Amino acid sequence: MNKDDSSMPEQIGSVDAEAVGSLRIDVLTIFPEIFEPVLGSSIVGRARAAGLVDWTITDIRRFADNKHQKVDDRPFGGGPGMVMMCQPIWDAVQHVEALDERPATRIHLTPQGEPCTQRIIEELAALPRLVLLTGRYEGIDQRVIDRLEPREISIGDFVLSGGELPAMCLIDAVVRLLPGALGHEDSAGEDSFSVIARDGGPENQRLLDCPHYTRPRVWEGREVPEVLTSGDHAKVDAWRHEQRLARTEALRPDLLERES
Ligand code: 9D3
Question: What is the pTM of this model?
């Protein structure tokens, strides 16, 4: 378990993670226990073991100023639900930011935020440090948001019960872009939504991925497209690019109109 305050970058083999510019992420939440099982697995966990990223998960309740560890209260003006109070959140942010001298980019995961895109993820992956603030209940008292001035990000126009899953989505998307995080170096460049620069041309569009096939060559009477078994790599590349364009035109024409 990676507990709060255990934030020293690890030195793995001969690679000094600090020297190559590792990413530090601090998450503030009232559900700290749900992060490690997800983040500890797969690419993100391996990236941490390799020293490319480190994170701390901090329980906002630690900063409650009352013995009941209460961090929410009833909304002024009435209405259903509860609102997260200013003081515990302010104190938690001050605490985690003091754990490291690198400047932090504050991010509040909220349904009101800017819809997340791969372009935003790429921006975040270039930063040294992220502090992610996740809300529960009806949200966070606006005054502490106004004082913290975080970047506000949503993961899409659907309603979740809190910002924890969005924070984990963001961390997964950012960490897999860190140099060395993926086994196959080219994998990230061929993702759906990644910028295509084919033949070094000016094309700067985010396309959907092409279809993929593996053995057997014939399954239940269904054959793999012949070009993929031809051994002609140039033809395979051209076919894949056509498939990406055709799929994007058919399924997501909005991606072709929007500037990346
Ligand atoms: C159902 C309550 N809504 C008002 C009628 C407001 C509301 C508050 C808090 C709705 C959802 C949430 C919890 N969601 C998040 O914190 C959240 C979120 C999301 O719900 N969808 C997409 N991205 C995000 S980022 C954070």
Answer: 0.89
Question: Does residue 151 have an active-site annotation?
Answer: no
Residue type, 220: E
* Active site (annotated) includes residue 176: yes
Q: What percent of the chain has pLDDT over 70?
A: 85
What's residue 9's pLDDT?
42
Share of the chain above pLDDT 90, in %: 81
Distance 88 CA to ligand 1 centre (A): 20
What's the pLDDT at 199?
36
The CA distance from 256 to 259, in Å, is 8
Closest CA to 138 of 107, 162, 106, 108: 162
Neighbouring-strand partners of residue 53: 23
Catalytic option among 33, 138, 185, 203: 138
Which amino acid residue places its CA nearest to atom 6 of ligand 1? 138
Across the strands, what pairs with 107?
A: 132, 151
